[in-house]
Specification:
about 475 residues; 23 helices
Length: about 475
């Protein structure tokens, strides 16, 4: 009986998702712009078929917040939600100077759909959702919880010290942090300043602070998850979430939301299971808060002057539809790039892929920046201004360099990479490891831009690299000690 109930619980999210997609399909078919963007229908049908026939891409119920689920959710926004919004409200202009031709937008929808199917085929080939899920319940029992070693304590303390140094370099001390938090104008002023060595070090080292906080929490919950009450564990985790917000505060919402999602995933997998319904409700609240914060950062208001009425006013002024389309990498962005590429054929001659990957690299990447996809895209929008705040989507980058084959092969590789991350997330025996793997999984698929992924790998993942190195060193040392004893 329990097995049957479990099967019903596992299949229920798929039924709900399929019904949701069918409703979305009907909405697109009967939308005012369905005759303008007929490819939107193909995208929704493709997403529905993938969910029906590729079981590795099904919703994972045991760990609602995991790399596979996050990837599918973001693709759902791109393939299903954005076309529905375009069908009723039209394509949002955003920062674009004009909307590209309708035939190019339809072509871009087809490219994104082709990319999604290729991603899922790669994911299906290199992972098994059933094996990953079954390992979830076995790993905890295999991991013996031993007293925390002195070396681990030293490492956590070192991470915290390095992170505090970076935090002070980045914000200029507590006063600078308070000034930065209090008004978005402070961020705009900082963006206009020339980069300094202290600022570069601050941006590089401050990520160690948040990682040390989660690492400390990870070691604590591993030893207390079975003895402490749910309330104590939840309150301790809430405190850690608050500290993470302070350690990672930025007007770039992804830098704050990603650690919170990773912490939630680690808690649900290793401490107490969080139901899918709770995750969904919390996700809606988080997205709403992120939207309001995004609208606030575009103002010049002091945070101390905000009231409930002003927060409500800010949320009413913003365009939710525009926000979803732009951050969901709407097809108009890719179409805009393709339109510019038709006018200027130099992009195809020189290529952008290597330049986009090397774009964020200090010194070495300087000579590649002018030919990178991100610079070309922003120059199409802003002209020759030194403003590079718009991200070039994966599918546009792949197509510019290798046409359709590039889109297929590029997304296959992304599916393969996400599958590896997904499996490692489930095999992780420590909360800190799950935290790290989900962080990698988030930035692999979001915001779906090679220069952003390259920048994150170069500047933000050093705590993960150092942790992985020493973790591997300790495990190899333990194996050698065991061999000697035998």
């Amino acid at each position: 009986m329990r097995g049957a109930e479990s099967e019903k619980l596992n299949i229920l999210p798929q039924i709900v998702l399929t019904c949701t997609n069918l409703i979305a399909l009907a909405a697109v078919v009967f939308s005012p712009f369905t005759h303008v963007y007929p490819m939107a229908t193909i995208g929704v049908v493709a997403f529905t078929c993938v969910q029906l026939f590729l079981p590795a891409c099904w919703v994972n119920v045991k760990s609602p917040v995991c790399p596979g689920n996050f990837a599918q959710f973001f693709f759902w926004v791109q393939i299903v939600l954005v076309p529905v919004l375009i069908g009723y409200y039209g394509a949002s202009l955003g920062t674009l100077t004009h909307l590209p031709p309708e035939n190019l937008i339809n072509f871009a929808i087809g490219l994104r759909t082709l990319g999604y199917v290729s991603f899922c085929v790669g994911f299906q080939l290199f992972t098994s959702a059933a094996k990953a899920s079954s390992s979830d319940s076995n790993q905890l029992g295999e991991d013996r919880v031993e007293p925390i070693s002195r070396f681990t304590l030293y490492m956590i303390a070192s991470f915290a010290f390095i992170g505090m140094v970076g935090w002070f370099f980045n914000y200029g001390g507590i006063g600078g942090f308070l000034a930065y938090v209090s008004s978005p104008d402070e961020q705009r002023l900082r963006d206009e300043e020339a980069t300094t060595i202290a600022g570069a070090l601050g941006n590089l080292l401050r990520h160690f602070l948040g990682f040390s906080i989660v690492w400390s929490w990870s070691e604590w919950v591993r030893r207390n998850s079975k003895t402490q009450s749910v309330m104590v564990l939840a309150m301790a985790t809430a405190v850690v979430a608050g500290l993470l917000m302070l350690a990672n505060f930025s007007y770039n919402r992804g830098n704050m939301i990603a650690p919170l999602l990773a912490l939630t995933a680690a808690y649900s997998k290793h401490v107490r299971h969080i139901s899918f319904a709770v995750v969904a409700a919390a996700g809606v609240f988080l997205l709403l808060a992120a939207f309001i914060f995004g609208e606030y950062r575009s103002t010049s208001m002091q945070i101390s002057d905000l009231s409930l009425a002003e927060v409500t006013s800010i949320s009413e002024q913003g365009g939710v539809v525009d926000e979803i389309q732009i951050y969901g990498a709407g097809p108009q962005l890719t179409a805009f790039i393709l339109e510019g590429d038709e006018i200027d054929s130099q992009t195809q001659k020189s290529g952008t892929l290597i330049s986009s990957i090397l774009y964020p690299v200090p010194i070495l990447g300087k000579s590649f920046r002018e030919t990178s996809g991100v610079v070309r895209f922003n120059q199409m929008i802003y002209g020759d201004a030194d403003n590079f705040d718009q991200n070039i989507p994966y599918d546009a980058e792949f197509y510019l360099n290798f046409q359709m084959a590039g889109v297929v092969f590029g997304y296959l590789l992304l599916g393969f990479a996400t599958a590896l991350i997904h499996r490692q997330f489930f095999f992780a025996r420590r909360p800190i490891a799950s935290y790290a793997w989900l962080t990698l999984g988030i930035w692999t698929v979001f915001p779906a831009s090679l220069p952003v992924l390259s920048q994150i790998c170069i500047y933000s993942f050093w705590p993960i690299y150092v942790y992985a190195f020493f973790r591997s060193f300790l495990e190899n040392d333990a194996k050698e000690s065991g061999s000697v004893q035998q």
